[in-house]
Amino acid sequence: MIMVKRSDIPIINISTLNNGKTQFLRDNFVVSDTDKDLPEDVYKHPTVINAIFFGICVRGRGKLHINLNEYDVEENHVIILIPGTILQCNLEEVTEDFLINYVTFSDDFIKEVDSTNILASLRERACFKLNDECIQLLLDRYYSLQKKLDRNDYMFHKEILQYSLLADIYEFYSMYQMYCLPEPEKYYRESDFQKKFFDLIYTYYGRERKVEFYANKLCLSPKYLSTKIKSLTNKSVNEWITESLILKAKALLKSTEMSIQEISDYFNFSDASAFGKFFRKNVGLTPNSYRKNTD
């Protein structure tokens, strides 16, 4: 379902895109396209995606706002969204023939058969272009998954879909390494560590701003967490906390009627003035000015 609150950002769960054959599949796995199942909220407000999303633009052109960064999307672009991503697509910014074929699935769906958390390393590349050969291969995999999902006579339907998806993810990641990275990237165990850290960051969105809070959640010392995150991401823990807070604050200012005081309380600031100073320091505008400039 879509949960829409006056005081928060709409959330899209997989059950919103319901075309599964069983309750488990309805809640955990979808193969579809934007002509069929994309909820209207994506076109109206910044919306939190509560799933892993792989999309391929097969025709048309459009602008997607992913974590409030703007991307020009056209044929052969791949879109990857991780749980917690904030997405918006304005109808005025897409052509009538704009179409994305997508596969979306829950963390739990893939965790049952894969322990590597390889998707954590894709968090920083939300949108990129691949060559025709790669796109055709990915589309072949997409249509194959679609056919498997439509079958009603498989005894191990869920398992067939899970392992097929896992093979497709590894094949995609190989393409990603070859064509989207300046140098081949080896997969390290740190990806699991990164995923746990980012899961916390995008769960709290800056409502907790002390490094110690995240270190305690991960059973680490603050110093070790800070050193490790800096070495893996080239950003400090504090930078990630601030970035996530500003991201959510911008979305709340843009898509809700919450007052500045309510948003300040949401992020646990002492008062609206403290939140305003923090926001202006990082954005260059006061919260009210940002809201008026994005109306």
Task: Give a description of the structure.
- The chain has 295 residues and is α+β, with helices and mostly antiparallel strands.
- It has two domains: 2-180, Regulatory protein AraC (Jelly Rolls, Sandwich); 190-293, Homeodomain-like (Arc Repressor Mutant, subunit A, Orthogonal Bundle), CATH 1.10.10.
- It has twelve helices and eleven strands.
- A six-stranded mixed sheet has the order 1-2-4-9-6-7. Strands 3-10-5-8-11 form a five-stranded antiparallel sheet.
- Helix 10 (260-266) crosses helix 11 (272-283).
- The radius of gyration is 20 Å and the shape is globular.
- The two termini are 27 Å apart.
- 32% of the residues are buried.
List descriptors.
295 residues; Jelly Rolls; 6-stranded mixed beta sheet; 12 helices; 46% helix; disordered N terminus
